[in-house]
Amino acid sequence: MRSTPHAETFPAHTPAAAQVFTAVLSHGPLTRLEAGRRAGLSPAAVTKAVRPLLASGYLVEGGGPEEGGTAEEARPALGRPAGLVRVNGERALFAGVKATGDELIAVLTDLRCRVRLARRAPLPDRAAGPALAALTDLVHELLAHAAESKAPVAGLGIAVSGDVDRAEGVVRYSPFLDWRDVPLAELAATACGLPVTVDNDVRALTVAEQWFGAGAGLSDFALVTVGAGIGCGLVVHGRVVAGAHGVAGEIGHLVADPAGPLCHCGNRGCVEAIAGDAAITARIREVTGRDVPDSAAAVALAHQGVPGAREVYARAGEAIGRGIAAVANLLGPERVIISGEGLAAHDLFADQIRQAFTTAAFGSAARCDVQTRPLPFEEWARGAAATAIQTFITHGTGSGKG
User: Fold this and answer.
1) CA distances from 229 to 32, 37, 140, 334, 335 (A)
2) Which pLDDT value is given to residue 71?
3) Contact (CB, 8 A) for 82 and 141
4) pTM of this prediction?
5) Taking Cα atoms as reference points, which of 161, 212, 145 lies closest to residue 377?
6) Pairing state of beta strands 221-226 and 335-339?
7) Distance of CA 9 to the CA centre of its chain
8) Beta-carbon neighbour count of residue 369 at 10 Å?
9) What is the DSSP string of 133-156?
10) Which of 203, 162, 155, 154 is nearest to 182 (CA)?
């Protein structure tokens, strides 16, 4: 991540401190013993890691009333170590922005990634310059609100679809924005005056689900998103997988039907070429002979029982199910979470997803817990904020743990 210098820095500079803090952030409040168990550290190492975090106010002792604890627990007697430590969510704020092909969605969160404010703005011009200007205006609106708080804004996360090099902060290629080699972290840091983390939108959402959502506590899980594209975020042995070149989990470009429609990647029959929103809409136009302007109209025709429309969704569900089975066969995750704006049509292809998954999953891989979790775009923006929180915690510690 490349960013401008900033005043607020995380007070501990060792991987152990980051691991303890992350354990408490995701699962807290915790006893020191439990925090050490989750982080794989000895009691002595935990004590050393916790001390500067307590001194600087990032951790506080006691469960606290908002955590289900009592005021008595929050104020332990002198000389008696507190039973619990928890993250002080009010200690720092973070901004997160999700960019779609026609809209920017932004949130302001606290250190525990709880949304304080959410805003949306249209994106009439997708070119990098105008889009950056619109993003800057939106972030400044969040910063104006944050100024009412005593907490510093410690980072900005931006989530973009496509091939994103998080380490360099560069959008290599975003098909829905038509961006190539945009140094977004550097540009946004200069414009907004914040340290910036840029990541693929599905990976960002995966970080949020790992730390704060349906993946919390799981060592291995996958997040599959359906909508404009078909994406997949992977967590293996507790780490979000980015791949050696920043690309991993591209199940949208697994071939489900070699004789299928041409995909924008150049291959035929990719899952995305069958089950992406644009592919479904185009196919429904073809089979019904009707003017179908967007995915909402396509869903409506299928719900009305227009001949051929439901079959398009059934085929899409089968392709998605095959893609999920491929993930289960390769990685054996405990859970697969299905999300994305395409879940508006979930009732039209849920059975086909399940049937194709069960058929194609090998052996015990079919026991994988497959869940659906509809999430609005504000949750994707929250995922962007989660990546900024992650960078803030791990930056300078030598820990890249996801």
Assistant:
1) 42, 39, 30, 24, 21
2) 38
3) no
4) 0.86
5) 161
6) parallel
7) 23
8) 12
9) HHHHHHHHHHHHHHTTSSS-EEEE
10) 162
Q: What beta strand segments (E) does 17-124 contain?
A: 59-61, 85-87, 93-99, 103-110, 115-122
DSSP H or E segment with residue 275: helix 271-275
Q: Nearest CA to 184 among 175, 194, 197, 203? A: 197
DSSP E strands in 255-299: the ranges are none
Round to whole Å and give the CA distance between 182 and 164: 10
How far is it, in rounded angstroms, from Cα 133 to Cα 131? 5
Reported residue count of the chain is: 402
- Report the C-alpha gap between 166 and 285 in whole angstroms: 38
How buried is residue 183: exposed, middle or buried, by Cβ count under 10 Å (0-12/13-18/19+)?
middle
- Return d(Cα 389, Cα 391) in angstroms, integer: 5
Rounded CA-CA distance 235/248 in Å is 11
Residue matched to tokens 């995915």 = 295
At 70, the pLDDT band (50, 70, 90 cuts) reads: very low
**pLDDT above 50: residue 78:** no
The pLDDT tens digits of the residues spanning 3-26 come to 444 457 888 678 889 999 999 999
Q: Give residue 201's identity as a one-letter amino acid code.
A: D
Helices and strands, counts by H and E, the chain = 13, 15
DSSP letter, residue 338: E
Distances (CA, A) of 298 to 231, 273, 277, 282, 302: 21, 16, 9, 9, 6
Contacts for 378 with CB less than 8 Å, ≥ 6 apart? 105, 107, 115, 118
Close Cβ partners of 38 (under 8 Å, ≥ 6 residues apart): 23, 27, 30
Evaluate if residue 382 carries a pLDDT over 60. yes
Terminus-to-terminus CA distance in the chain, angstroms?
15
Q: How far apart are CA 326 and CA 369, in angstroms?
A: 14
pLDDT > 70: percent of the chain: 90
360: which 2 tokens? Answer: 């194609």
